[in-house]
Amino acid sequence: MTRVIAIDSEQNERFRTWERLLEGRGIRKHGAFLLAGRKTVPEALAAVPDRFTAVIAPDTPALDQLAPLLPAHLARHVLARPLFERLDVSGTRLPLLVGTVPAFAEADLAAPPRGLELACALGDPSNLGALLRSAAAFGVRRVILLPEAAHPFHPKCLRGAANAVFRLDFVRTRGWAALAAGAGPLLALDGGGADLTRFSWPGDLRLVLGEEGQGLPADLAAARLAIPTSGAVESLNATVAASIALQHWFSRRPA
Amino acid sequence: MTRVIAIDSEQNERFRTWERLLEGRGIRKHGAFLLAGRKTVPEALAAVPDRFTAVIAPDTPALDQLAPLLPAHLARHVLARPLFERLDVSGTRLPLLVGTVPAFAEADLAAPPRGLELACALGDPSNLGALLRSAAAFGVRRVILLPEAAHPFHPKCLRGAANAVFRLDFVRTRGWAALAAGAGPLLALDGGGADLTRFSWPGDLRLVLGEEGQGLPADLAAARLAIPTSGAVESLNATVAASIALQHWFSRRPA
Predict the structure, then answer these.
(1) Which CATH number does the domain housing residue A243 bear?
(2) How confident is the model at residue A1 (pLDDT cuts 50, 70, 90)?
(3) A163 lies in the same domain as A232
(4) List of chain B residues whose C-beta atoms are within 8 Å of the C-beta of residue A235
(5) The domain containing residue A143 runs over which residues?
(6) tRNA/rRNA methyltransferase SpoU type domain location, by residue (chains A, B) (predicted)?
(7) Which residues of B touch A137 (CB under 8 A)?
């Protein structure tokens, strides 16, 4: 029989580590993340079982129910309910997985882009999650994270991303200047840019997306594209605007 | 000089009413809402001053700073800081406006749609807010609210909507059956539908959007449209998918 570890104390070292995975800082420090979700947990176990190291359940029946899907290498834990609830921030009441965060290499920006590479500084993990879901849906494979960006394995990002993080390669860069000094074409969304719906998309490009409410550095050397609107509101939601751009690239890129 | 009312007690009747405006139920009961935001408050005062009845400030300097923009009919209040913070759920630390919610008439669905009318059951107020922002940006004027929908004047919806609510007419309907029995064309987003990017959009239609995670009743008599994707994720975020559909209608509708 597979050994199950019961944890009842908030002083338990494993529990204390897991609780730190609720914030980007702890995720960075420990190189681990928590995945929750009625659909996402079974899907991720089927798609990328080697990414996970442990399962955390609220009780034995919940663990038993998931057991047929659990690879043998996963450590199994049942937590006292109050402890479990502190980790189950989405309120799923279903087992959580502990996974290993891949190393984010420094991007080699001198090399030309392959496909659409999304360079992103979205600081809100929920916004980033919805964006990553759109990115995977529209054929993006590589995401370049700016220092301002939320951690893509933050619980709120994972919740919005619907397992898209496991389909994407993440690299990081030190800032906008490094991106501008790299290979192009570099494209940005901007209310004053050229009509995106009439644009001849290249197959390979870097699309840059600034921080919410901050936008991009005014002097960033990138071609500007705009989504035509009625003008009734000043701008679109950043995730929505970027998703519209990705959809247009996906449906109109060269074969 | 304009009279300013100071409120220090959480037992104060006005304060108690305002606190109830943080939830849909209280907004419905009192027919009022709270608007917050560094940009949205001055913009709304300029665009629709008659929609507001009062201003609530955290201190006198903050009230004085906004004073040049305040119509004379607004009641002015300065709240003790702990009380103000309970109302300032977005943490703006800037004056809030109290406004009057318009009556949402029952939709006359037998009448044909005029332009794109968005019928929506999104239950999460943040999702609804981002969607309403897209709706106003892409020329929607009328939103039909299903019973499951969040209240469009919920603080989280207003925060995402960036004043789009003041550009839209809201009507309500009792449910999907009433919508299906009304005039068409009725269109819905569905993974199994026809390619939305190749669709000949009519100028007048009703686009229906189900509740998050629930989708639409399987037997709803609506033409289905799909957004082609890579297949890497099962579906797009509901707000993102609807925004993409609205953008396509806006850019390709008959003149």
Answers:
(1) 3.40.1280.10
(2) low
(3) yes
(4) 162
(5) 105-252
(6) 122-246
(7) 229-230, 232-233, 236
